[in-house]
Amino acid sequence: MPTPTSMPLVVFLAVLTAALGHAVWNALLKSSGKPWDNVTALCYATAFTSALVLFFVPAPAPESWPYMIASGGTQFFYMYMVSKVYKKGDYAVGYPLMRGLSPPFVALFGFLFLHETMMLNEMLGLACISLGVLAIGISAIHHFHSFKKQGMLALFCGLMIAYYALVDGTGARLSNSSVAYTMWVFVLQGIGVFIFRAFKKHALWIPLDSWKPWLGAVLSSAAYAVALWAMTQAPIAMVAALRESSILFSAIVGIWLLKEKPSLFRIMGAAMIAAGVITFRLTF
C-alpha cells in the first residue's frame, strides 16, 4: 500500500470520534479501585470481545503478523506501565503527559523509518496539540516530588506509544483488514497480561461483573480500530497527533466524572489543542 500523504475529511472526523472513546476508557481506569486490577479487567474484557469479532472478519495478511505480535507483546507491558503512572499521581497529570509526549516521537520516527513527511500546517497543528496537552498536564501538578516519579514513567509511556503506533500503523497497512489486525492485537494483549500476572504471582482472575471493563473494552477496541484504519488512509503522525485531541474530552471527563478542578492553564491548553485541530484542516 502506498504511503498516504493527506487526511481526508471523513478520516479527520472519525479520529476525533475515536478520541472521545479513548478519553472515556482511560477515565474508567482511574475512577475507582486498584489501577493494575482495573487494567487487567479491561484487557481481559477486551480480549474476550475482540475474540468474538474475529469470527466475523477475514484473517489478516501473513505479512502483518510480525507487527501484530510485536504490538501485542508491547501493549500489555504498556498497559502495566499506564497503571503505574496512574498509581503515582492524578489522572489529570498522567494522562496528558503520556499522550502529549508521543506525537513528536511518532513524527520523528515516522520520518526516519517510514519516510513520512508533513506539510507546514500539519507540523504546526501537531506542535499545538502536543504543547496544549502537555500544558494541561503540567497545570494539574500539585506536588513536584511526586510529579518527578510520575513524569519519568509518563515519558517512558510516551515512547512506547510512539513505538507501537508506528508498528501498528505499518501492520494495519499490510494486513488488508485493519479491524482484524486490531482485534488480534487485543487478544494477544490479554494473553500477555495473563502470563505477566502469572509471572509476577498476582491473582490471575479479576471479577468482570462490573459494567466498567465491558464498556471500556468496547470503547478502547472501537477507538483503536478507527485509529488504525485512519493510519491506512493518512500519515501515521497526523493520526497520532489528532488522536491526542482526546485530552479535550478528558478534561471534561476529569471535571465531571472525577471531580477535578479546572484552571486557567488547563483552559489555555485546551484552546491550543483546538487551534491545532483547526490548523490541521488549513492549507498553507
Q: Can you characterise this structure?
A:
This protein has helices at residues 9-31, 35-53, 65-88, 91-113, 120-139, 144-175, 178-199, 211-231, 236-243, 246-256, 264-280. With 284 residues, it is mostly helical. Helix 7 (178-199) crosses helix 8. The two termini are 27 Å apart. The longest helix is centred in the middle third of the chain and has 32 residues, at 144-175. The chain has one domain.
Index terms:
284 residues; mainly alpha; 77% helix; 0% strand
The structure class reads mainly alpha
What is Rg? 18 Å
- Alpha plus pi helix count: 11
| Multimeric state | single chain
Low-pLDDT stretches: none
Number of strands: 0
- The separation of the N and C termini measures 27 Å
Strand content: under 5%
Helix content: over 70%
Average pLDDT number: 83
Largest sheet: none
Anisotropy-based shape: globular
Number of domains: 1
Query: What string gives the helices and strands in order?
Result: HHHHHHHHHHH
Write the layout of secondary structure elements.
Layout: H1 9-31, H2 35-53, H3 65-88, H4 91-113, H5 120-139, H6 144-175, H7 178-199, H8 211-231, H9 236-243, H10 246-256, H11 264-280
Summarize the structure.
This protein is mainly α. It has helices at residues 9-31, 35-53, 65-88, 91-113, 120-139, 144-175, 178-199, 211-231, 236-243, 246-256, 264-280.
